Amino acid sequence: MLRPLILSLCIVWPITTVAQDDLWSDQISITVKTQILHRFDYLEHSTKNLAKAAAQNCDPNSEVLRKSLKDGMWAWASASAFRFGPTETDNRAFALGFWPDTRGKTPKALRKLILDRDPIIESTESFTEASIAARGFYAMELMLYDPAFRDIGSPEYRCTLIQRQAADIARTANSIREDWEHYKTYLIAPSEDGPYRTQAGVKRELFKGVTTALEFTSDARLGRPLGSFDKPRPKRAEARRSGMSLELIEASLNSPWDMSIMMTLENEELSGILQQHFSKIKLSIKDLDDPDLSGVSDPASRFRIEALKQQIDNLRTTLADNLGPHLGVSAGFNSLDGD
């Protein structure tokens, strides 16, 4: 599956001729433009295509519709390090990706909508009031891939529901991108009047984004399906129905990788260490050949999946022990903890 090329931040800076604060200002500005805005540009673009595909053909078997959904999911995972600011406003992140669904709320919410013929799907506006569990990429994945939703209720209602889900996803992605256009100023030029008073506050936010994204990939994307050796949980894998589990793990590493390199441009040794970590993880992913992580139930495959998780955990330790002190910050609060 073709994906957009994200601009690399591996830039050589003449640090001896530029003040440290000015160097960081330039790095943060480049990060905002080539990473944050660029990734949300693609999320907006891919979700517009998803809404268009659903409007033209709501058949769950439509290859165009399924590919559009996968593109959108990839774009969302690829922006995983930027779950702050406009991304979190009005529960937008959860409206796009309500996962993990530890209590099975999504199938319950969808089933209730369909069987009750709930009029909440009459318009895109009214659908924003639906349960978050019935909205977003994972709810739509169930509608397209889960046989349990092929025959319940009426075909007309299911079609409209799919179209509303797609339009709602696109609308949410558009709102995130539009608000980032304004919010970027807070990162580039911190001030007493904004959410970040100093450059240190900006670095702390970016570092927290990287560490939180990696923690989520290790604990949820890998840890949940791994379960225990005696009781693996392959059905807990993210997006397993569409076979996107492993691809989303790889996508989730994109922004943490680029961000980590950006934050160590003036430290060649640390930058090289982090490059090695990320490169090894990427190679391990490519060697797995296990799209839905069903291999957690096979001892040989499970060993390699456990090794991948350990590699990510080792990277997290390296970041905490080296990148954090380098920036003068610590991982701090995890925005994904919720209530």
Automatic annotation (TrEMBL):
Residues 1-19 form the signal peptide. It holds the Pfam family Peptidase_M75. It is found in: Cell envelope. The keyword Signal applies. The keyword Oxidoreductase does not apply. Keywords: Signal. Residues 38-318 form the Imelysin-like domain. One of its GO terms (cellular component) is cell envelope. This is Imelysin. It comes from Roseovarius albus.
